[in-house]
Amino acid sequence: MKKLLTGLAVALAFSAQASISQVQAGTLKVAATAVPHAEILEFVMPTLAKEGVTLDVKVFTDYVQPNVQVNEGRLDANFFQHQPYLTEFNKSRKTQLISVVGVHVEPFGAYSSKHKDLTKLPKRAQVALPNDATNGGRALLLLQKAGLITLSPEAGITATPRDIISNPKGLRFRELEAATLPRILGQVDLALINTNYALEAGLNPAKDALIIEGSDSPYVNILVVKEGTEQNPDLLKLIAVLKTKAVSDFITHRYKGAVAPIY
């Protein structure tokens, strides 16, 4: 009898453990910035639920913790960044994060609450840039495209103000955390703002940006996981859903050109 009870206890414990594993296997914890990433994930929730996957979206306001927590295994994936940012993050933080699918492009733009034309920027105008290497470089490349500055040919996508070799207007640069840029728009002459933060602040990139990247932008926003977890069956279901026409149509109609699907 004692052996029978012991065997039954082991069987019940194994059954309970298996049940817990099944619940965990059916849940994906994904970090995202609020707009448009979390909104896109919320849109696909019902479809994934029908396939037995619960999507648990954790909204972040910064570009560091989503990667840190995925690398540490506290979250399954994140959705907020482009490949140049991820490449630089992996290099600087020694993380092992990889892209599993591209979803959309958010054309980067320059905004002002004081001026309606870039040609009207005054001498020594104050310009705010994101302080992370890839988005700061992206901002400077956009200013170069507008003819406001010239960068050293060797600068590349991680250019900094130190790489400026010509600055006819004597623009002064402030490098700040990307999320804070909409809030200080009234304090500077021009701010280079990531589209997700522009949308959160009520700005319409298609209408309000004084200059914006074209549709050929290489900065595709990607779903990111820790290397070695990319074959998670529930993750594969999320990837498949993100590539559907339904998601493409949602992005097109919801953001009206401010965000462009790649499928």
Q: Would you write up a description of this structure?
A:
With 263 residues, this protein is α/β, with parallel strands linked by helices. It folds into 2 domains: 2-106 and 219-261, D-Maltodextrin-Binding Protein, domain 2, CATH 3.40.190.10; 109-212, 3-Layer(aba) Sandwich (D-Maltodextrin-Binding Protein, domain 2), CATH 3.40.190. The chain has 9 helices and 13 strands. It has helices at residues 2-25, 34-50, 65-71, 83-93, 133-145, 195-200, 205-208, 233-242, 245-255; strands at residues 27-33, 54-60, 77-82, 97-105, 109-111, 126-130, 150-151, 164-166, 172-176, 190-193, 211-212, 220-226, 260-261. It has a 6-stranded mixed sheet with strand order 2-1-3-12-4-13, with helices on both faces. A 5-stranded mixed sheet has the order 9-6-10-5-11. The protein has a two-stranded antiparallel sheet with strand order 7-8. It is globular, with a radius of gyration of 22 Å. The protein starts with a helix and ends with a strand. The model is unreliable at 1-24 (pLDDT under 50).
Q: Count up the domains.
A: 2
**CATH fold-level assignment of the largest domain:** D-Maltodextrin-Binding Protein, domain 2
Give the % helix: 25-40%
Q: Stretches where pLDDT falls below 50 for ≥5 residues?
A: 1-24
Strand order of the largest sheet: 2-1-3-12-4-13
Strand content: 15-25%
| CATH H-level superfamily of the largest domain | Periplasmic binding protein-like II
- Number-wise, the strands total 13
Q: Roughly what is the average pLDDT, rounded to an integer?
A: 90
The Rg value, from CA coordinates, equals 22 Å
What overall geometry do the principal axes of the alpha carbons give? globular
Number of helices: 9
